[in-house]
Please model this.
Amino acid sequence: TVSFSFSHLLLALSLNFLALIGALICLFLLMRRHTSNNVAGMTLILLLIFPTAFFLAAVYSEAFFLFFSLAAFLFAEKRNWLLSTIFAGLAISTRLVGVFILPALVIELLAGVPLRQLPKAINKYKGTLLLLSFSLLGLFIYMAFLQKEDRKSVV
Model:
């Protein structure tokens, strides 16, 4: 059995709050790149007043997943593929559906490439594609964590 003290709860809530702040900053920056400041600000307000937004303030992985996912896309748009890969791996390590960030990042990488030039573009970006594939390490970390937790529950 695992027991939590008040200090553990306070630490968990603090970390979750920091992840939520990071997610809001990333969402604002992403939205500002495509829209006005007013629309970006309204997006944050709508996210925070949405009925299920309380999950972002509770001790769940939602705020972390949102932060890591948005950061991965923000850095992908800035063409900083190393940070994008790191944040994608962290997003994948928080939940299984995070693996779908990888194809989206590949699409972001190859966006604007005409279909007939796709083989050349893939060859041109093979280093970046290899780098992005390292984000799957997050999946293996997540699987190892689940395996460890499963063994604990059996014993």
